[in-house]
Amino acid sequence: MSSVWVTRVVSFPVLPCWVDTFSSGHIASTTVTTNKILAILHQAVDELNVQLPRDKKLAKGEDTTLIGDGSVLDSLNLMTFLVAVEEKLSETGLEIALADEAAGSPDTTPLRTIGTLGKFILSRAAEKSSS
Fold first, then answer.
1. How far is the CA of 81 from the CAs of 51, 98, 123, in angstroms?
2. What pLDDT was estimated at residue 3?
3. Domain around 58
4. Which residues does 78 contact at the CB level (< 8 Å), separation at least 6?
5. Fewer C-beta within 10 Å: the chain N or C terminus?
């Protein structure tokens, strides 16, 4: 029996986002990429899953529902996840508030799935880099 792995490519753009100045005075340009955002989201999923019962663990898929019908998260778990994502983004120098977005309609919120959250983060990073 042979196994076939199927990978779905997410089409997030690569965005120049911020510039860090190190204590040595060197300046390093940093970019936000799909892979960086997905890594942050996956790390936050891993952290949350440690706290969740086996039947409530989140998958790391782009289509994993975070809010609304089909989500295994209650409001406290959702906020725990969003705070973890915000902290990880902050560690990379990117300050994006996500918790306010949870107040919208579950059908229209950018937090509906891991994929829509990733796209939302990239769009906010683009806004910050252009300002």
1. 11, 10, 20
2. 39
3. 15-130
4. 66, 67, 71, 102, 111
5. N
